[in-house]
Amino acid sequence: MSPRAAWRLETLGFGNVYDYVDGKNDWMAAGLPTEGTNAQRPRAGDIARKDVPTCGLTEKVGDVSARARAQGWDAVVVVNDERIVFGLLHSKELAADPRELIENAMRPGPSTFRPFVSLHEMLHFMVDHKLESAPITTSDGRLVGMLRQEDVVAAMKKAS
Amino acid sequence: MPQEIHREEVRKLVADGAQLVEVLPSPEYEEDHLPGAIHLPLRQLDARARDMLDRKRAVIVYCWDTA
User: Fold this and answer.
1) Domain range list for chain B
2) How large is the average pLDDT for residues A53-63?
3) Does the distance separating the beta carbons of B30 and A24 come in below 8 Å?
4) How many A×B Cβ pairs under 8 Å?
5) Contact A98, A155 (CB under 8 A)
6) What's residue B66's pLDDT?
7) Which of A1, A7, A117, A121 yields a CA-CA distance of 20 to 30 A from B56?
8) Which of B14, B29, B34 would best serve as a mutation to test chain A binding (most A beta carbons within 10 A)?
9) Could you give the domains of chain A?
10) Looking at the predicted structure, is the pLDDT value of residue A139 above 90?
11) Other Cβ atoms closer than 10 A to A88
12) Shortest Cα–Cα distance, A51 to chain B (Å)
């Protein structure tokens, strides 16, 4: 739609026309602010926990597990230096051989969700797929935080 | 020929005074639009663009994505 609009504006005499080709989807997926009736409703990115522990591929399970426990978490997100998500570790993976490399122990390629998804939509998906938590990332794969089902339920109760 | 641009260029151009225009229908604009965006649906461009937009300033149009 926007390419047609851009071309039409040129023919209407506008000389300096740009087409934001990735559009609103890209903007919202990056977690950038919007205006409108939905703007004040909490979304996945708003309540995702930013303090979720992270680790690198070459760390050892024992070290990461100890760190997660000390922070009160039973989940860890595997990222690189750019915070691109590579994998997840839940209780089962964190209980693996402590000498094992994270790269070999993690659940690779987890499903991730964008920050603008509504809490209602997230809860529906999490219940259907039996997910206690889900990583929230920007459209280019960078970790925003971890969304916990209990936080979604609490936020929805508070909003109603 | 309109230039295709991406997010960071949008932010820079808007900061420099470009007009941001959402060309989607009303309900979609009302629910969520980029900060400061003008609403000018595609079907109303012919009738309203010259009145609503400043021809001396850059114009950035957008919809949901590349569709």
Assistant:
1) 7-62
2) 98
3) no
4) 140
5) no
6) 66
7) A1
8) B34
9) 44-159 (3.10.580.10)
10) no
11) 21
12) 27
Write the ipTM. Answer: 0.96
Domain B7-62 carries which CATH code? 3.40.250.10
Tell me what the mean pLDDT of segment A40-64 comes to: 94
pLDDT digits (tens, 9 = 90+) for A102-138: 999 999 999 999 988 989 999 999 999 999 999 999 8
> The tokens of A76 are what?
């860890």
* % of residues, chain A, pLDDT over 70: 100
CA torsion A36→A38→A39→A44, rounded to 10°? -160
Whether the Cβ atoms of residue A117 and residue A137 lie closer than 8 Å to each other: no
Interface test with B, best of A7, A18, A138 (most B CBs within 10 A): A18
Spatial contact of A24 and B32, defined as CB atoms under 8 Å apart: yes
Contact A35 B61 (CB under 8 A): no
